Amino acid sequence: MRPWAAGTLKAVFFVFASLCAWYSGYLLAELVPDVPLSSAVYSIRSVGEKPVLRAPAPKRQKCDHWSPCPPNTYAYRLLSGGGRDKLAKICFEDEMLIGEKSGNVARGINIAVVNYVTGKVIATRYFDMFEGDNSDPMTAFIQSAPSKSLLFMVTHDDGSSRLKEDAKKAIEALGSKEIRNVRFRSSWVFLAAKGFELPAGIEREKINHSDNAKNRYSGWPAEIQVEGCIPKGPS
């Protein structure tokens, strides 16, 4: 073969190879999705790596419990007020019976009454214990709760200054061990049953006193809470 013929053949082969390479690149660009180069590089680097197993986000439980209540029980959570702006809350079966969003929480003792058999709310009230004469109306409210009722009580700010003896006796009759220890701005929460007994072991009552040396907030102790699961009664 003559030298010029061999050179011509090489040139044709080079042009053909270049066209094939260009066309292959064109097809590849059409088939590969439009993603950032960094993502593509990361994907290439990830080939052969062990997959990272991510735990699913925890499921939210009723009343923000860490774990779900057993079947045939009521979930509850009582939270006292803390400081001037952290208002008290009463949650029952994931319904905020008393709280800021409900618009029915205030200074003093906040009370919710629930029908134990049906789980339905009967009434909610708050009673200012710093100003006004609200101890007697609160006593009447507590005593008017029907049998087979759950009563939830939480303080916000002061729950003791105008609390009278009759009110203390009414709350003691429901099983409170701390009502006589409530002082100015004490944080106090209490779960009571009227007309039946709650099972032993259910968290029912807590108290935390104002102490200038230990207070979390200026002039106020830290908020406290109790929570748990109440076995349902026969319908």
TrEMBL record:
Q: Specify where it is mainly localized.
A: secreted
Pfam families according to UniProt: ILEI
This one is known as: FAM3 metabolism regulating signaling molecule B
Please name the GO terms that the record assigns under molecular function: carbohydrate binding
Q: Which PROSITE patterns match?
A: GG_LECTIN (PS52031)
The compartments listed are: Secreted
Annotated gene:
FAM3B
Q: Does the keyword Disulfide bond apply?
A: yes
Please verify whether the record's keywords include Nucleus: no
Q: Residue limits of the ILEI/PANDER domain?
A: 107-195
Q: Which family does it belong to?
A: Belongs to the FAM3 family.
* Top-rank taxon: Eukaryota
- Signal peptide limits: none
